[in-house]
Design a protein that fits this description.
This protein has one domain. By secondary structure, the chain is an all-alpha fold. It is 43% helix and 0% strand. The protein is rod-shaped, with a radius of gyration of 19 Å. The protein is built from one helix and no strands.
Length: 53
Amino acid sequence: MDLLDYLLLAGIAVLLFFAARYAFRHRHSGCGGSCAGCPYHGKCGNCVRRKKK
C-alpha cells in the first residue's frame, strides 16, 4: 500500500469518528416514530427538546 492509501484510510477513519460522535450526542433528539405512546400525539410541533444547561 502506498502513502495515499494510508491517507485515505485515515481520512475515512476520521469521518467515521465524527459521524459516530454526532450520532451519540444526538441519539435522544427528535421523534422516535411511536406516535401512539407519545404525549404529543397529534401535536408534534409542541414537542421541543430542552437545551442542556
